[in-house]
Amino acid sequence: MPDTAFILIVEDERSHGEALKEGLERAGHACHLVDSAKVAIESIRRRAPHVVITDHRLGGDQTGLDVLK
Which residues contact residue 34 at a Cβ distance below 8 angstroms, ignoring those fewer than 6 apart? Predict the structure, then answer.
């Protein structure tokens, strides 16, 4: 069985995020989908993901780069 990664998906367009999540979960990974940089940063503080997939342009005053910092 392949290793399971915990993947944080940060996407403000819900349908895009759901599509990524579905495909990654089918590949056997655990995913958490959020729709803002603020929520993503809070999630990272609670549980560090193995991988972060983020949209660069997110609604609000923060970007995907803020999440990665």
Answer: 8, 9, 10, 40, 43
* 15 exposure class (CB count in 10 Å sphere: 0-12, 13-18, 19+): exposed
pLDDT digits (tens, 9 = 90+) for 21-64: 999 999 999 999 999 999 999 999 999 999 999 999 998 899 99
Q: In the block, which residue shows the tokens 């655990």? A: 30
pTM of the predicted protein model: 0.91
Q: Give the CA count within 13 Å in the CB-facing half-sphere of 9.
A: 21
The three-class DSSP label of residue 9 is strand
d(CA 31, CA 7): 5
Per the structure block, which two tokens stand in for 10? Answer: 């940060």
